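Problem: given the chain below (221 residues), write out its structure.
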Amino acid sequence: MVQIAEAGEMMRAERRLLMLVAALCLTGLLLVGLAGDHVEGMMLTVWRDATDPALYRLPRWLLIYVEDLTALGGLPVTLTVALLAALLLRLLERPVDAALMLVSAGGGLLLGMGLKLAFVRPRPDLVPHAVEVLTSSFPSSHATMSTVTYLSLALIVADRVSRPAVKTYLLALGCGLPLAIGLSRVVLGVHWPSDVLGGWAFGVAWILLCRSVAFRFQPAH
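Solution.
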């Protein structure tokens, strides 16, 4: 009974954290929407040369770093991470966590693509795209997939860790990677800031739903 009560308290704390993150993303989305297209445009052009938007104000090495960073949120990387993590969790005899990992990533992908088809928002055209893009703009798939993959995995691992410092590190990593990847999409000129905020908000909401359902099937530990 003590283990069940502790697990329930952990789930409630986790739910509050995820709701806070989702609320922050939605608040940012609302503020950006109220500010208008001009502000979003400034967030895209601030990184570029005023006379030639094809040129960056950033040093070349930093731009290469941003391009490499953004690849961590692409479908090949996130789906591979999700599949490998699910396989490892299954080998560790944690079938609920393995299923949670697959549903978080797979469901996030399918629902995110559905939202793209529903909104059909054009990509930004204020600056040249630094990387190739194939789909519509809202919500950002990179923001969504990095959130449902890395934050989900961080939560799963943190759930089995007792040391507060390690938990904090894992959660910071799980939030920090999607944050950096989402920002990279704006720097590269392929997403409006609101696309990224929408992707983060959707990703966190989807994780919250998936983990709430999975908790009902999770054995006490």
